[in-house]
Every structure is written in C-alpha cells, then in structure tokens.
Amino acid sequence: MSEFEQKVLKLLEDINGKLDTLLKGGTGTTTTATVTPSVPAPAAEPEPSRPKPSELVEKQKEEERLIEKPPVEGRRVCSQCGGTSFNAVEDKSQVLHQMGGVKIYAKKYICKGCGAEA
Ligand SMILES: [Zn+2]
Fold first, then answer.
1. Is 70 exposed, middle or buried (0-12, 13-18, 19+ CB in 10 A)?
2. Residues 19-30 pLDDT 10s
3. Which residues are near ligand 1, the ion (C-beta closer than 5 Å)?
4. Torsion sign (Cα): 26, 30, 34, 35
5. How many structural domains compose the chain?
6. Is residue 1 part of a domain?
7. Rounded to the nearest whole angstrom, what is the distance from the C-alpha of residue 93 to the centroid of ligand 1?
8. How remote is the CA of residue 41 from the centroid of ligand 1, in Å?
9. E strands within the chain?
10. What three-state secondary structure class fits 21?
11. Non-local CB neighbours of 29 within 8 Å, separated by 6+ positions
12. What is the pLDDT of residue 68?
C-alpha cells in the first residue's frame, strides 16, 4: 500500500468517525440546529392561461368598440381662441416608437386660427 493510499484511508477513517458522532447526535462540537431546507416549497403549478370563450368574446367586443370610436379630431377646441380647426403636425421631439429606421412621431395640433399648440 502506497503512502498516498494510506493517507486516503486515514482520511476516510476520520470522516467515518465524524459521521458516527454526527449520527449519534454529536458531542457538542457539532451544531444540533435543525436543518431548514433552503429550497422553497415548490410553487403551485400555474394554471394554463387559456382564455375562456366568453373572455374571447368580451375581448372582441372591446376591440370593436375601440374601432367604432376613433379619436374625433373635430372636437378639439383651441384654449386660446376657441377655434376648432387644427393642423396636425408631427412632434419631432416625441418619438412614439421606431421600427426599421422609421420613426413614428407623436402628433401635436396647431390651431389654424391663432397658431397655439393644442
Ligand atoms: Zn387658436
């Protein structure tokens, strides 16, 4: 038996002895604190999010409502002069979103009567 093998054997015996003391409840050198599992309780499986048919109908109705009522530009009233006609211009300082190099700007409305921004 080589020196290395003897060392390993000695270590194994040490470990064995330590295990024995652990299994016997320890001699005071080992903590007897109850081991709390660090793994949290498995989360409940989420319900498969398949919308019910009724929900789909509701969603469709909602979408139809949105289509039926587009923003009415004629209702806009100038706070400065009460004018109702406006020029819609792109507000280049407000990029709504950018797609493939094409920027979509927010719109702002300039009163045709007095030039005030609505
Ligand atoms: Zn105006």
1. exposed
2. 898 888 755 555
3. 78, 80-81, 83, 111, 113-114, 116
4. negative
5. 1
6. no
7. 22
8. 64
9. 86-99, 102-111
10. helix
11. 21
12. 62
**Cα 52 to middle of ligand 1, angstroms:** 49
Dist. CA 96 → ligand 1 center (Å) = 26
Tell me the CA–centroid distance for residue 33 and ligand 1, in Å.
78
Which amino acid is it at 19? L
Q: Is there a domain that residue 27 lies in?
A: no
For residue 6, tell me if it sits in a domain: no
- Is there a domain that residue 107 lies in? yes
Ligand 1 centroid distance, CA of 118 (Å): 8
**The token pair that represents 49 in the structure block:** 């999010």
Cα 105 to averaged position of ligand 1 atoms, centre (Å):
23
| C-alpha of residue 67 to centroid of ligand 1, in Å | 29
> Which comes out higher in pLDDT, residue 106 or 49?
106
Domain range for 85: 52-118
pLDDT tens digits, 47-90: 777 778 788 888 888 887 776 655 555 578 999 999 999 999 99
Q: Give me ligand 1 centre to Cα 86, in Å.
A: 8
